[in-house]
């Protein structure tokens, strides 16, 4: 879709010789336009829910809220958080989980530790510990296995024997590595509390966070988990809405002085928006282009078209 958007933008700009937008500038404008559209999903969804409560929304094919929810949920992901220090776990980021968190949906912890030991043999896609008895310990398919050194996490797919497990990922490339196994059946959602209240809660025998009712506070770039015994790699999982990946229109050669689109480049990234949002992206990029080339007519044209041909909830109310 990104090539179609760029061609449309350039066609509109070149019609009256307003100017040319370089690939670098286009990528910057495309990123900002995508972030605008993404942010509007949540505000439009909120308005859709309000309209449903007021009995002003349709159903079936007219259920706008459901369509928005499906679009938004494309960006809903779950990742195991990387341990920072003690009972602190890093907030999702490009460095720790591979993506930035836009909004946290749920934070949960696996509270039952089955075994903490060291693997003895390397077997691709497996965990082998000759000193353990996974069957006696009650390890089951779906239980969580984490590498104590790398913080990588996998799930048990097969209990092969008392000393061997098949995992969903190869997280043990060498022997002598510590590991944790948690029961997947004992997972608790963490309640968020403010930093100003956590001390008071911890000082009370009745309200102190426990493995049955854990809690967390957010501090700078990390979540602090309570009780402090929840502190092992792979023990905390976050479900959150991530930001869309930055779009990038890539090219390799020049044809007649113009860049030639090439999506085979390793850094190529298309828009992560549905196809029906192509119009919104074009109009928003044109607004940025109008500011860049100092042509108010371009920006005014894009704003007028966006308001007239694609009304949003905010424009309807």
List keywords for this structure.
317 residues, alpha+beta, Thrombin, subunit H, 3 domains, 6-stranded antiparallel beta sheet, 4-stranded antiparallel beta sheet, 16 strands, 32% helix, globular, disordered C terminus
Distance between the termini: 31 Å
Oligomer: single chain
Q: Let me know the largest β-sheet.
A: 6 strands, antiparallel
Total of helices: 8
Strand percentage: 15-25%
Number of strands: 16
- Total domains: 3
* Rg computed from alpha carbons, rounded to a whole number of angstroms: 25 Å
Derived from helix and strand composition plus strand pairing, the structural class reads alpha+beta
Average pLDDT over all residues: 84
Q: Level of helix content?
A: 25-40%
- The sequence of SSEs as H and E is HHHEEEEEHEEEEEEHEEEEEHHH
Shape: globular
The strand order across the widest sheet is 4-9-6-7-8-5
Poorly predicted runs: 311-317
Describe the overall structure.
With 317 residues, the chain is of the alpha+beta class. It has three domains: 2-73 and 276-316, no CATH class; 76-110 and 186-242, no CATH class; 113-182, Beta Barrel (Thrombin, subunit H). It is built from eight helices and 16 strands. It has helices at 2-15, 23-53, 64-73, 134-137, 195-202, 278-292, 296-309, 313-316; strands spanning 76-80, 88-90, 101-110, 113-118, 126-128, 144-147, 153-159, 164-167, 178-182, 187-189, 191-192, 215-219, 222-226, 236-242, 251-255, 258-261. The radius of gyration is 25 Å and the shape is globular. Residues 311-317 have low confidence and may be disordered.
């Amino acid at each position: 879709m990104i090539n179609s958007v760029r061609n449309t933008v350039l066609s509109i700009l070149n019609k009256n010789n307003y100017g040319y937008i370089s690939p670098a500038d286009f990528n910057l404008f495309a990123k900002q336009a995508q972030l605008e559209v993404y942010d509007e999903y949540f505000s439009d969804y909120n308005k859709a829910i309000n309209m449903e409560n007021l009995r002003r929304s349709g159903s079936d094919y007219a259920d706008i809220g459901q369509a928005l929810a499906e679009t938004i949920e494309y960006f809903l992901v779950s990742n195991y958080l990387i341990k920072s220090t003690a009972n602190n776990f890093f907030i999702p980021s490009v460095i720790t989980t591979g993506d930035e968190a836009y909004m946290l949906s749920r934070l949960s912890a696996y509270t039952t530790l089955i075994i903490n030991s060291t693997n003895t043999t390397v077997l691709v896609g497996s965990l082998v510990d000759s000193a353990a008895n996974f069957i006696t310990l009650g390890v089951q398919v779906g239980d969580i296995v984490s590498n104590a050194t790398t913080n990588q996490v996998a799930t048990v797919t097969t209990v092969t024997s008392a000393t061997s497990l098949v995992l969903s990922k190869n997280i043990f490339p060498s022997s002598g590595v510590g590991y944790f196994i948690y029961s997947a059946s004992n997972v608790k959602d963490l309640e968020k509390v403010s930093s100003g209240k956590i001390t008071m809660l911890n000082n009370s025998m009745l309200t102190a966070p426990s493995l049955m009712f854990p809690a967390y506070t957010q501090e700078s770039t990390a979540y602090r988990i309570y009780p402090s015994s929840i502190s092992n790699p792979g023990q905390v999982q976050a479900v959150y809405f991530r930001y869309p990946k930055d779009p990038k229109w890539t090219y390799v050669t020049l044809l007649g002085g113009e860049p030639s689109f090439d999506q085979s480049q390793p850094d190529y990234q298309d828009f992560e928006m549905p196809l029906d949002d192509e119009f919104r992206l074009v109009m928003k990029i044109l607004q940025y282009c109008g500011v860049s080339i100092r042509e108010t007519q371009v920006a005014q044209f894009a704003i007028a078209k966006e308001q007239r041909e694609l009304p949003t909830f905010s424009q309807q109310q």
